[in-house]
Design goal:
Length: 616
């Protein structure tokens, strides 16, 4: 029979529409402006007494707290308005001081029954939701110094293997200086080292016991080191941002020594800053023997107990650069630890060092590059000067029981959070040079709300014009088309929510375009039905012929547009990709609603019934 669907097809359409409705619902629950409080190191939160003080202070300032949520590492205060959020952040930060980080946040308010179905709202881009913008500066001089430290360690090992006596090693800028007991040893060392390290310019200085070999990096070598540092830091930062799970992040180079990082809608800006800006790395060194010359040793404190220290060899066995994988776990006593897997080179170096030093202690050193600000007065004006410094602390000093290989574990960490962050940093790769925050901007939700309001208004205006046109032009069939259009928008939102696609302003433009294209298919079908009626076909035959004969034109037009959207996505950047995603999904949902949903509604109203006149 013409214009009748079997029951299973009606049920399938109904199920798809119900699923779309459920998974689009979370977008009706806007996020709450909130502030998140965590300790500077991210391993503790405010206690109950401090929380009561915060409540009292905010109440006194006329700021209402909507809800309080606590976890092991942070406390979240939900507030009513963005203005209250900003005022609360400033007030709480002043109360708690530098020991805590008070960050702006947007907390999801999706009902629990929807969360149980894994339903969540669409991810919004930086232009809609806000987020953080970091401008990072790479310390190029430190990159050169670190490379010289590695070269110095390799040179000392080479000289010891060849039994050439040296007295001291000194690094100044881009120059590495070795001091020898006499000129003969210096000349022998120069001949040996120059073959292994061609990136230096060599110069003899002094004679006798003051004989020195000064090695200065060439300009080309410095440029290569600095270029490697910026590119390696870019790769590492991208890996760290991916570990954070941020949608549509931006990590790109700006100028010779700067990197821009933009994180849309981060849930915890304090954690983002800790992870992105962390320059933690590890070094593995042997503990010095009592008879080791003082020039070859370095005294470092323990990280957890600064009053305790140990004498270590200056030579480094391996660093965090040789770590291929790292994960957090707990030992048999429930204490946090990090399981380490080394790459081939790192495993070989570790095995060679431990195989010949069984019974000797080996230290794991945690290194952090930080900055502190100090005020200087120049010509009567106060200026803030950023002063970089490095903290080194021993986190583990254990006896080597047997030769180690590619896998082992690190203990002695303060908390599970610290173990998780250290594992993340080692997994994503260490930075080739320290980075410092040259600029930090938090893009608040007020800007995003304004953009969303304008975007939604454009969708509403476009939708209203289309609805009016379809009603006036096609009457009852216009009602079918408008219902399908609303369902199309619902399915599009649900698809973007399920896939985790990021909605940006260009994406909203794609939605507006989708609304216009969605009715194109209905216009083709309805005009074809009109033509068939004019040729003298019956109402049922005209409806059937209209859908059948318009099908090929609709498919051709939409597939062409879909191919363009795929090309835009493959070669475009962030905003263009956002437009392509919404356009592609919109084409698929439009085909479903225009060809199946409107046909189902027409069949239910007219199918199998004697109809003399069609209101179209």
């Amino acid at each position: 029979m013409l214009n009748r669907y079997p029951l299973w097809k009606y049920l399938l359409i109904l199920i798809v529409l119900l699923v779309g409705l459920v998974y689009s619902l979370p977008n009706l629950f806007p996020e709450d402006p909130a502030i998140q409080i965590s300790s500077e190191r991210g391993d503790a939160t405010v206690d109950e007494r401090q929380l009561e003080r915060i409540r009292g202070s905010l109440t006194e300032a006329g700021i209402d707290i909507k809800a309080v949520e606590r976890s092991e590492t942070s406390t979240l205060l939900r507030l009513e308005t963005p203005d209250a959020q900003l005022a609360a952040r400033d007030r709480v930060a002043a109360m708690l001081g530098d020991d805590y980080v008070v960050a702006l946040n947007l907390a999801e308010s999706t009902p629990e029954w929807l969360q149980a179905l894994s339903a969540s709202p669409m991810t919004l881009g930086l232009d809609l939701r806000g987020g953080v913008h970091f401008l990072l500066e790479v310390d190029m001089q430190a990159a050169v110094s670190q490379r010289l430290e590695v070269n110095a360690s390799a040179m000392r090992e080479l000289l010891r293997d060849e039994r050439i006596r040296y007295r001291d090693t000194d690094i100044d800028g881009r120059t590495l200086t070795l001091t020898f007991t006499d000129a003969e040893d210096r000349d022998t060392a120069r001949s040996l080292i120059s073959r292994e390290f061609p990136d230096f310019q060599y110069q003899n200085q002094g004679d006798g016991r003051g004989a020195e070999l000064a090695m200065t990096l060439t300009d080309q070598a410095v440029d290569e080191i600095q270029d490697y540092a910026i590119n390696q830091n870019l790769t590492t930062l991208r890996n760290r941002v991916n570990e954070l799970g941020v949608a549509e992040p931006l990590v790109q180079r700006q100028g010779p020594d700067r990197i821009v990082v933009e994180l849309p809608g981060v849930q915890d800006t304090a954690e983002a800053k800790r992870i992105v800006g962390a320059t933690a790395n590890l070094e593995f060194r042997l503990e010095a023997r009592p008879d080791t010359p003082e020039s070859e040793t370095e005294t470092l404190p323990f990280r957890n107990t600064p009053s305790r220290d140990a004498d270590l060899m200056r030579d480094v066995i391996i660093t965090g650069d040789q770590v291929s994988n790292a994960s957090r776990s707990f030992d048999e006593n429930g204490r946090p630890q990090v399981n380490i897997n080394l790459d081939g080179t790192g495993g070989t170096l570790m095995n060679r060092a431990t195989r010949t030093n069984i019974g000797r202690n080996m230290a794991v050193i945690y290194i952090e590059h930080k900055t502190r600000d100090r005020v200087e007065t120049v010509d009567g004006e106060e200026t803030i000067v950023r002063e970089p410094y490095t903290e080194r602390g021993i986190i583990s000093l254990a006896t080597i029981q047997s030769a180690l290989g590619n896998s082992f574990r690190i203990t002695g960490l303060d908390s599970p959070t610290e173990a998780a962050e250290l594992a993340l940093l080692l997994r994503s790769g260490s930075l080739a040079a320290p980075i410092y925050f040259a600029q930090e901007r938090t893009i608040g939700p007020s800007l995003g709300a304004e953009n969303i309001q304008r975007g939604v208004m454009s969708v509403q205006i476009g939708l209203l014009l289309v609805v009016l046109f379809m009603l006036i032009r096609y009457k009852v069939f216009g009602v079918f088309a408008n219902i399908a259009l609303a369902l199309n928008l619902t399915l599009l939102v649900a698809a973007m929510s399920l896939l985790g696609a990021t909605l940006t302003l260009p994406g909203i433009a794609g939605i507006v375009l989708t609304l216009g294209m969605a009715v194109d298919a209905n216009v083709l079908i309805f005009e074809r039905i009109r033509e068939e009626l004019r040729t003298g076909l019956s109402v049922q035959q005209a409806i059937h012929a209209g859908y059948e004969r318009a099908f090929s034109s609709i498919i051709d037009a939409n597939i062409t547009t879909l191919l363009v959207a795929v090309i835009l996505f493959s070669i475009g950047t962030g905003p263009v990709k956002g437009f392509a995603v919404t356009l592609s999904l919109g084409i698929l949902t439009s085909l479903f609603t225009a060809l199946l949903v409107t046909r189902a509604m027409v069949n239910l109203v007219y199918g199998g019934k004697p109809v003399k006149k069609l209101w179209i």
